[in-house]
Model the fold of this input.
Amino acid sequence: MVTRRDALKLSLGAGLALAAPKFVFAAPSGAAITRAIPSSGERLPVIGLGSSATFSRAAGDDAASLSEVLRTLISEGGKVFDTAPSYGESEPVAGRAVQELGIADEVFWATKVNVAGREADATADPDRARAQLDASFERLGRTSIDLIQVHNLGDIPTQLGLLKALKTEKRVRYIGVTSTSKPAYPKLIETMRNEPLDFIGVDYAVDNRDVEETILPLAAERGIGVLVYAPFGRTRLWQRVADRPVPDWAQDFDATTWGQFFLKFVVSHPAVTCATPATSRVANLVDNLGAGRGRLPDADQRQRMIELIEGLPAAG
Done:
């Protein structure tokens, strides 16, 4: 299996254009691209940081390295940090780190609530949900959290109802829901049509474009911000590109690595507010943030990107 770390190493050896480490790890010059949150106009950098997968695993045994990742997020012009109580130690470790670093107020903190589980008809105990929310506030050490979403569309009436109350009390600035399950998309669409959401969180990648059909257009129509999860298809896209070099024409939209290629495709969709790839490595984070600078692909370039990836073998 080819990992992102392997792909970066292979890219470095693929040609002179990527021969020097600075082309992979140094943040490109220029200001970070930002997008407005539709419900408020507040602008966010289009690349953030997620905390599932590798971040979550590292939180269990290497909190010091994650502190440096979070420090780098802010120092390199990022802002959005996406987490959830279900991501193991990610939320408590990140909460302690940003407070110790003195950057808690500079982070756009996006977390989640769900005590109902993933079953479509599961119900949430309101007291348990409140306790989970209280724990998130305590971990961050703030009286107000930027964004809380109902994770996996769990018991929308109960849990989104709690978030609406917190927003009225000004303890939460933005509220929303998340889903990374295609069978749940009809429920997501129904919720988007009927609830006052500031954000949704969905999976989207160059080889996973189902949300382009209805969900992203509906978000634009309804004025709902979009956080993108799994922009690398978790590890799927790294497996597909394997040891292939990044095509020369990717330089036309300032992508010098596969990570930037994948991310620039995602954030070039105008309905996307921010992509939040997870990583526990500073080098990968800086590379990711580079996708939020320079040019983004236009419609013709996006189609060329799709055709390239679709022409590769499927992930094993």
Q: What stands out?
A: The beta strands are 34-36, 43-45, 49-50, 80-82, 108-113, 145-150, 172-179, 199-203, 225-229, 274-275. The chain has 13 helices and ten strands.
